[in-house]
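Let us work through a complete example step by step.
Step 1: write down the sequence.
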Amino acid sequence: MRAHLTTPRPSRRPLRALSAVAVGASFVLVASACSKDEAPALSTATVARGDVAEVVDAPGTVQPRASAVVKSPAAGTVATLNVSDGQQVAAGDVLMTIDSPSAVSNLAQAKQADEDAAASGSSGSGSAKSASQVAAQQRKAAADAAARFSEAETQAQAIADPAARAAALAAVQSSRTQYQLLASQTQALVDQVNAGLGNLDTAVSSLGQAQRVQTRAAVSAAQATVDALVVKAPISGKVSLSATGGSGSANLPAGAEALLAGSGVSLPAAAAGSDSGAAGAPVLAQGAAVASGATVLNVIDASTLSLTADVDETDVLSVKPGIGADVNIDAVPGAKYHGTVTSIDPTPKGGGGSSVTYTVRLSYDGGTGGDGTPAATPLPGMSATVSLVVQEVDGVVEVPAAAVVRAGSDNGAKDSDTVWIVSGGKAERRAVTVGVRGETDVEITKGLDGGEEVVTEGAAGVKQGQQVS
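Step 2: predict the structure and record it as tokens.
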């Protein structure tokens, strides 16, 4: 909040027009402006009582109750597509299935590696004749494990369903931790063998157990990816099919062609698209190619709307939960919407240069159109201007903001708020105490009484004792 009043902050304005000042206003022409040596024109207003509101304006956005991005768990093609753009779905509904030969192949390879590790472990100590050989095998196993755990984690991250993704990631992390413990145990056994205190077969067995942990984790992750090829809705809501950007095949997300070419996936004719296709047709279609991790659709739950506003750091400390706001939706001109602050995010958002804003969250309380009927319900993502009423007082002594100027105190210690009152036709400076500061009107809590006359326009240039009327 800025204290300077001679130029009111553009981001603030009164909540409603204040009629009391307008009724009491009078305009006095002191001198003609035809000569540069003559005094400028002044205007005056009669001090009256009215309502003052301090409002902070901020850009806002309409938000849905929830939204979820659905990504392809692996490279492949859409085998079946069970939904259309804008269709309402329930959480758990099957949205599509994806045919991914690469995911199926990865699962087969992981299972084979696990079988090989099991067979190697059951062969006893025949694969290693010395502690140095066990140590060499352990180093190779560690390198293989790091690569496979990383691959398993990547596969788990691509799973669309949040619950399934979290479970897969937890399983990978658990297996990684278990592997690290067994690897440490194997190293300790090798050290004991080198010191002549341990048994080589025990060390080999421990190494085999560690390798099986890694291979089983790889199988689990690969299986989760294959299971995720049956794509289900993570939440209830309406489907929004992913759109492509830039040039390229109409049915492919941006950059998908290059990724698919690199993975050896061939593009079916249905995915190629053409310039002659119908305008506005869904981008995703049965047979379309998808890249691993590419967004294929979104599910948006707009059953309950809310609002967010990006409030400047200089104003955010004035905003408190529970205060009301007027909202103008850009897409619905003339309609007046309302909201109530529910929370203020403590994390700042950096803007251009040194600008910093904070996200203020508000409930959506509906609105009315210009004719007084209920206003159209906005859609998620629509832009808005949110006017937050940070302070409001009724029936108080008020003056136009232009009447209040900053001036040094008598002892020169600091600046103070002052006005020029008109007494006997001459201007006299008077110190006042300002309460709520609106953009066009301010509350005076001390120093003025109703019925007194103050200079408004031109007040900054008035001199003590200057003739006003």
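Step 3: interpret the result. The helical segments are 19-24, 101-122, 131-157, 162-194, 200-227, 256-263, 269-272.
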